[in-house]
């Protein structure tokens, strides 16, 4: 399933696919733009199927209800929401439009990479583990968003290498959903796991 988010300052494309034999994808995501920032959260519930989806959905519902708060506070609230739940790996990042800064916090194997027009990609490191309601010390990182940079955030259902960036750009710029699906299937190469992939770029 492909969704397009043509915000005022960013365009974001999101694609999600369930594991082969499961009724739903165990991942959830949330993306929103305000006048001041873009916020994005991706959560991958442990395991797969409905139980995983319920856990990941609790995380994104928490972010949806508290997106204006600092990223670390959102992570704390997301962690609390998973008490007595299956658990999830989570990444949240926020791009401050006025400051041009990214605030990032991740626990587990959801990967964020930002590709500048030139030079090396930026890939902040997440903290190992997962959220389950137990106390966690979060590591929050802040860095400048490169002008015109393309961000890619994805769950562990797909492994994106630097040489696959042209395929990512094709998914982002495809005129029709079926074209984007074809490029995405090329990227997956038969991988049968849950996967969530979000691609975003400034509009100017």
Write a concise synopsis of the structure shown.
The protein has helices at 50-66, 71-81, 165-173, 177-188; strands spanning 2-6, 10-17, 27-33, 37-45, 88-96, 101-107, 111-115, 140-144, 150-154, 195-202. With 204 residues, it is α+β, with helices and mostly antiparallel strands.
Distance between the termini: 27 Å
**Percentage of residues in DSSP E strands:** 25-35%
Spatial sequence of strands, sheet with the most strands: 1-2-10-9-7
User: What is the annotated CATH architecture?
Assistant: 4-Layer Sandwich
The unreliable regions are none
What Rg, in angstroms, do the CA atoms define? Answer: 16 Å
Number of domains: 1
What do the pLDDT scores average to? 88
Which terms summarize this structure?
5-stranded antiparallel β-sheet; 204 residues; Phosphatase 2c, domain 1
What does this structure look like?
The chain has 204 residues and is an alpha+beta fold. It has one domain (2-202): Phosphatase 2c, domain 1, CATH 3.60.40. The protein is built from four helices and ten strands. The chain has helices at 50-66, 71-81, 165-173, 177-188; strands at residues 2-6, 10-17, 27-33, 37-45, 88-96, 101-107, 111-115, 140-144, 150-154, 195-202. Strands 1-2-10-9-7 form a five-stranded antiparallel β-sheet, covered by helices on one side. A five-stranded antiparallel β-sheet has the order 3-4-5-6-8, covered by helices on one side. Helix 1 runs antiparallel to helix 2 and helix 3 (165-173) packs antiparallel against helix 4. The longest helix is centred in the first third of the chain and has 17 residues, at 50-66. The protein is globular. The two termini are 27 Å apart. The model has no long low-confidence stretch (mean pLDDT 88). Residues 7-202 form the PPM-type phosphatase domain. Pfam families: SpoIIE. This is Negative regulator of sigma-B (Phosphoserine phosphatase). InterPro entries: PPM-type-like_dom_sf (IPR036457), PPM-type_phosphatase-like_dom (IPR001932), Ptase_RsbX (IPR039248).
């Amino acid at each position: 399933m492909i969704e397009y988010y043509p915000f005022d300052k960013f365009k974001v494309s999101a694609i999600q696919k369930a594991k082969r034999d499961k009724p739903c994808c165990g991942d959830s995501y949330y993306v929103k733009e305000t006048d001041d920032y873009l916020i994005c959260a991706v959560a991958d519930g442990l395991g797969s199927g409905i139980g995983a989806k319920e856990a990941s959905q609790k995380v994104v519902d928490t972010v949806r209800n508290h997106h204006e708060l600092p990223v670390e506070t959102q992570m704390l609230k997301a962690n609390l929401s998973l008490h007595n739940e299956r658990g999830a790996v989570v990444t949240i990042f926020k791009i401050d439009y006025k400051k041009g800064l990214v605030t990032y916090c991740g626990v587990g194997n959801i990967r964020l990479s930002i590709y500048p027009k030139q030079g090396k990609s930026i890939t902040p490191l997440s903290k190992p583990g997962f959220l389950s309601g137990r106390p966690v010390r979060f590591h929050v990182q802040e860095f400048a968003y490169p002008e015109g940079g393309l961000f890619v955030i994805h769950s562990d259902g797909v492994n994106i290498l630097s040489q696959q960036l042209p395929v990512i750009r094709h998914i982002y710029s495809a005129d029709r959903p079926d074209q984007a699906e074809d490029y995405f299937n090329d990227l997956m190469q038969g991988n049968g796991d849950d996967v969530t992939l979000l691609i975003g770029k400034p509009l100017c």
